[in-house]
Amino acid sequence: MAEAIAGGIGQSIPRKEDARFIRGKGNYVDDVDLPGMLFLDLVRSPYAHAKITAIRKEKALAVPGVLAVITGADLAAAKLAWMPTLMSDTQMVLPTDTVMFQGQEVAGVVGVDRYAAADGVAAVEVDYEPLPVVIDPFKALEPGAPVLRPDKKKTDNHIWHWEVGDKAETEKALKNSAVVITEKLYIPRIHVSSIETCGCVAQVDAMGKLTVWMTTQAPHAIRTVFALVSGLPEQNIRVISPDIGGGFGGKVPVYPGYVIAVVAALTTGKPVKWIEDRTGNLTSDSFARDYHIEAEMGATKDGKLTALRVKTLADHGYTDAAANPSKFPAGLFHIITGSYPFAAAFVEVDAAYTNKPPGGIAYRCSFRVTEAAYTIERLVENMAHRLQIDPAEFRMRNFIRPDAFPFKSVLGWTYDSGNYGGALKKAMEMIGYADLRKEQAEKRKRGELMGIGISSFTEIVGAGPSQTFDILGIKMFDSAEVRIHPTGKVIARLGTKSQGQGHETTYAQILAEELGLPADAINIEEGDTDTAPYGLGTYASRSTPTSGAAAAMAARKIREKAAKIAAHLLEVSPDDIEWKDHKFQVKGVPEKSKTMADVAFAAYTNFPKGMEAGLEATDYYDPPNMTYPFGSYICAVDVDKETGQVKIRRFVAVDDCGVIINPTIVDGQIHGGLTMGFAPAMLEEIPYDADGNNRAGSFLEYLLPTAVETPKWETGKTVTPSPHHPFGAKGVGESATVGAPAAIVNAVLDALEPYGVTNIDIPLSPHKVWKAIHAKDAK
Amino acid sequence: MAIDVEEVTGSTPSTTTRTIHVTVNGVAHRSTIQNRMLLVHYLRERLRLTGTHIGCDTAHCGACTVLVDGTPVKSCNLFAVQVDGRKVDTVEGLEKGGKLHPVQEGFHLEHGLQCGYCTPGMMMASVALLARNPNPTEEEIRRGLSGNLCRCTGYVNIVKAVQHAAKKMQEPAKGGA
User: How many domains does chain A have?
Assistant: First the structure.
C-alpha cells in the first residue's frame, strides 16, 4: 500500500489561508487604501414608493470636503440610470423620477473621507411626493392595484408565470388518492447578512484601465457585465475580488453602489471607495425566499406517496433581479419532489412586483432548493402524522431506492446517486431514535411537550451543465490553470472565488492527490481577472463540482505529458509507464520510478527532443450533470407550554456529499450551514409594515444567532460518490441550510401534535408557538 | 422603522481636533484627530491596523472588538478621544516574538474561522474571556462570546478553539517552542 501524499484528499489538514486571518492580515476590500482615495456615501429613500420632485445638491456641495453629488439625472445623461438584471428585467442605478422601496439609493455623495461624504449625504435635499404602496403580493395582483412598473408598459404587477409537470395527470392522481393533505406555507424574506457588508474601490489609471476591488463572488462575470454595460473594452477592466468576509449569495449581484463608485472614479479621476453600512445592506441588498406556497400531497391508505401539486406566489420586489443563472424562472424549485419517486407532480409559480428591494435567491442556497426541500419535508411529515405512521418509517417506505440511480424525477431532473435510507438509519442510530420516541410518549402522558422532527432532503448543486445554465449566454463551466515550477512547486489559479470555504486548502489537496506533490508545495490563487482563467464564480455549492473537477482534469492533462518525460528519464517507451502510488513507474518494475518533482525539473532541463518545455495545463470543466448531495437530519425539541419557548435539545445531521476532500472543513461547512438553517427557522425575518417600512434594518431587529442560541450540532457522514465527477465529490456548502429548517419545524409541530397544529410559519417565535398552543386551548 | 428621515440642517463637519496619547499594542502614539473620529477608524485608517473590522456600526456584531486597558470594547461605538491616556490591544499585537498567542493557535488548529472577518474581534473577546475565567465551561464560553457574531462557523469550532487556548495557557511554560 502506497503512502498517502501529504495533504491529499481525505485528510483534515489545517487551513493554509488561516495564516493571514489569525494575524489580522487579511486583505478585505475596506483594507484597500490608495493615494488620494475618495469616499462615496449614499442618500437613501425614506419612502417605499414616491415621486421625486426635486433633488437639490447645493447645500451638500457646500459642505467642506464634499466634491460631487451624483444623481439619476447625471447617470441618465450617460445612459447609466438603469442596468439590466440577470432575469431580463431592469433595475435602477439611481432614480430619475420615482423611488420603489425604502432604502433605495437616491444619490451618491463623494467626499475626501467617509466623514465628509456622510455630512454631504445629510445635506442633500430631496423632495418626495408619496405614492400608494404595494406590499402584499396577493393584493399586488388584484385588479385595480397601483401598477408599479409602467416603465415596462405593464398594466398589472404580474411578472411571469411558470409551470412544470403534468397538470391533468397530477389532478387525476390526487383525485384517486385515498388521502390528500393541503398546507399553506409562507417562507418569509430573509437576508444573508455576511459580517462584511458589500463595497468596492474603483480606480482608473493613466492608461484608462479600470481596476475594481470588489466584494464579488463572481469576478469574471462581473468584468464582462461591466464591459457590456459601460462600453469600456474588456481588456481595460480588471476586477479583483480580495478576501471576502462571507458571501452566501449576497455578493453575486451588481448593486447600484458599485456602479456609482465606478462612475465617480471615472468622473473625478481619483480612486473611489464605497463601503455599505449595515442598514444599507439589510434594506437594499438581495434578499432571499419570500415564497407563498400552497402544496397538496396525495398518498394511498397504506402510506405510499402518489402525487404532489404546488402553487406558489413569489414576491420579487420592484424588479426581478434574482441571481438565478438557470433557464427556469423559479430556479431549481422543481427539485421539490425531493427524495421520493412521485409518479405525478405539477408545480406552478407566479411572480409579482411589490415595493420592496429586489433580489430573490441569495441565502446559502442553490436557486430555490431550500424552498423546495422545506415544502416537501414539511408535507411528508404532515402526511405521516395524518396516516399515523412513524415519520421515519414513512420515509423509509417511500424513498427512492439505492438501486434506482441514476433516477429520473417526474419533473425532469436526473439524480446522480443516493442512499437515502442509509443516511436516515445512521441519523436514527446517532440520536437514539427509538428511545427518544419512548421518552416522548411518557412525557406526553404527563402533559409535557417534546417533539422529534426529521428532514431527509435531496439537494441539487454544482451548476451547471451548460445546456441549462448560463449568465448572459456565458455557459456555466469553471476553470483551473495549473503550472508546475522546476523545483516541483505549483501555482494554480481557478475561476471560482472563496468567501471562507477554504479553497486555498481544498484545491491544494485535490492537486496534491492528482499530482503526487505535497499540498504545502501548491499555492492557490483566485479572484483576479487579469491572472485567473475565466470562470463563473462561487455560489450554489458549485466550486468543488466545477473548478474542483477542472483542477483534477488539468492535473491529469499534466500527467499525460509528465508520463512521456518520465519515460524519457527512465529510458523506456511511454507505453511502459503507469501512474501508480503517486509516481510514474515502469510497469511491473515498481523500483524503477520517477516522482512528479523529478519530472518537473526535467520538464525545464531535460525533456525529450521535439517536446515543448514546461509543465502546465488548463481545463474548462462543463459538468455533465448536476450533483445531488443529500442527508437526513433529526431534531429533538422541548416546548414550554406556558411561554412558547422552543429548546432544541439535540440536532443530529448526517450528510452525504460524496467523496470528502477535507473532513474538518466539511464539518465546518455543515456547522455553519445548520446555523443558517436554524436562523430562519427560529429568528430571522425581514418584515414590512403596510407603509413599506423595513422593520429589520439593523442587527437590533434582524436577529443573527449568537453562540448562546445556536444548538450544539452533532454531525455524521455517509459517502455515496457522484458517478460523473472526476473524483466523486458533490459539494457541501449549502446542504445544511437547505435541510435544517424542516427538521426544526417538524419537531416543534410534533411536540404540538396534541393541539392539532399542522403549521406555524417560520420564524417560530415564542409568541407564535404560544398562540398556536393556546388557540386550541380556548376552543 | 429602520431609516430615519434626515433632518436637513445644513450640517457642517466638526473641525474641532484634539491631541491624544494612546499606547496601541505596546507602541506609544501621539495623534491629533477630529473629536468625532471613531476609535475603529483611528485604528484602521490612521494607524493602518486593518485587522480590526467593521461589521454593523451599531455595537451588535463585535467584529471591531479591541481591548482597552484589558477590557473588550466595540471600537465602532467609541470615539478615539475616549482612549486618550489608555492602552489599546488589537489582533495585530497577539503574536509575540514570532510566537502565536494560544488563542490564535486554537482558532487555526480547531478550524475556528472560515471567512476570517469576525475572527479578530472573536479572538480579542476570547483573550478577555480567558483573562477573566481561565478555565471556562462550554456554556461560559458561549455566553462570554455572545457579543460577537459569526456567520460561518456555527460556533462549534470557536468553542473548541477557546478550550484549546484555555488548556494551552494552563500548561506550565515549556522553554523554546
Answer: 3
Cα dihedral A242→A244→A248→A250 (10° resolution): -70
Reported as half-sphere exposure (CB side, CA atoms, 13 A), residue A611 has a value of: 20
CATH code (residue A686): 3.30.365.10
CB–CB of B60 and A698 under 8 A?
yes
Q: What range does the domain containing A732 cover?
A: 288-394+420-463+625-777
Instruction: Look at B51 and A704 and tell me if their CB atoms are within 8 Å.
Output: no
User: What are the helix and strand counts (H, E) for chain B?
Assistant: 5, 5
Flag whether A180 is in a domain. Answer: no
pLDDT tier at B177 (50, 70, 90 boundaries)? very low
How far does the CA of residue B162 sit from the closest CA of chain A (Å)?
13
**Residues A755, A776: contact at Cβ < 8 Å?**
yes
**Which residues face A656 on adjacent strands?**
A630
**pLDDT number for residue A466:** 85
Ranges in chain A, pLDDT < 70: 1-2, 776-779
- At A608, give phi and psi (nearest 5°): -60, 150
- Report d(CA A530, CA A553) in Å as an integer: 23
The mean pLDDT of B163-167, rounded to a whole number, is 98
> A21, A278, A497, A664: best mutation site toward chain B, by most B Cβ within 10 Å?
A21
| Alpha carbon distance A544, A541 (integer Å) | 7
List the CATH code of the domain at B102-170: 1.10.150.120
Task: Please give the interface size between A and B, counted as residue pairs whose CB atoms are below 8 Å apart.
Answer: 232
Q: What are B25-82's pLDDT values in tens digits?
A: 999 999 999 999 999 999 999 999 999 999 999 999 999 999 999 999 999 999 999 9
Q: Is B57 on the interface with A (CB under 8 A)?
A: yes
A183-205 pLDDT, tens digit per residue, is 999 999 999 999 999 999 999 99
What is the Rg, in whole angstroms, of the alpha carbon atoms belonging to chain B? 18
Q: How remote is the C-alpha of A489 from its chain's centroid?
A: 33
